[in-house]
Amino acid sequence: MITLTIDGKSATVAKGTLVIEAARQVGVMVPHFCYHPKLTPDANCRMCLVEIEKMPRLQTSCSTQVAEGMVVKSASSPVVQGARKSVLDFILANHALDCPVCDQGARCDLQDFSHEYTATTSGFKELKRVFPKEYFSPLIETQMNRCVQCLRCVRYCDQVMDVKALAPVGRGTMTEIKAFGAHELDCEFCGGCIQICPVGAITSRVSMYEFRPWMLKRTDSVCGYCGDGCQITFQTKNNDLIEVNSTHGAGRNNG
Question: What is the pTM of this model?
């Protein structure tokens, strides 16, 4: 076991644990977009930067493993706070500020972090990128003006579903997510890309504009398609079924 200190809190975790997970275990929530426990670390969003003693520069906590005696500063470091605010500044330079009509409103990571770091505007004065709406299928709509290029959807499709139906196309700020080699998705439409998106770039056309998150009633249940007993969550509004999601970290399927 490895013992380290994160924002003054002592943590004892297994060797090989990532700093971001060690922080979570002691109640220190490190903001992030690209990181997800089910995916290999990508470290492309830079939102999870932390200060580690004896290291010359800030490190990405989603790709850095713990070490004995390591001293990590996250929320307690003014340098880290400034770096995270700068990351948000770059993202907001091109992000569509359409929270009132976005289905991800009130459960959007970018919205939460913008409030937390009071990053309500960007210091960059330039025309925002504009992508047209596209439809991956009759069930899925993409709005790349909202994309933060975390590539969670691409990696989920590749690493978890082993389908490789999505791919990033373009360079820099003009990167967008496309159906790989086609205009429509060639997959079983599991909906994982919708659920794993931290913003509102990939949404369900079935329930679009039908609800706000606080209107939904959550009911945990078990999938009935086979005998494995995977846990799922029903989201209902006025007894109408709106969404069916996997429950992260729960059940036989571990979400």
Answer: 0.87
